[in-house]
Amino acid sequence: MDINSRSRKFEPETVRTLLDQALERFGDRATAEDLFQAVARTGHWTDDIIWQTIMESIVNIPVLYYKYPIVPVEQRFLFEREEGYFERYDPNWHGQYDHGHRI
To answer: pTM surpassing 0.90?
Structure first.
C-alpha cells in the first residue's frame, strides 16, 4: 500500500475556525463572551487575538470594515443582534450588507 497515494487535506486551526465551531455548538446563537470563552479554553491564543477576530468577523457594524479592511467579506460570518447576541450571518434571513450597511 502506497501511503503517498492517500490525499489528506490539512486545515490549520485558526481563531476563526474555532469561533465557527463554537457558534455551531451553541446552536448558532451566542454572546461574545460565550464565543470568547470557548476559544480561550483551547489555550492557544491571546485574549487580544480572540477579541480582534470576533470583531473582524462581524457583518453588520460599518466601522469594523474600516478598522479591519484586510478581512475579506466572505470571512465575516457573525451577525450582531440588538440584544447583544451573535448569530451566524445568513443573507436570506438577515438581509444583504455592504461594508456593514444594510442594502
So the answer is: no
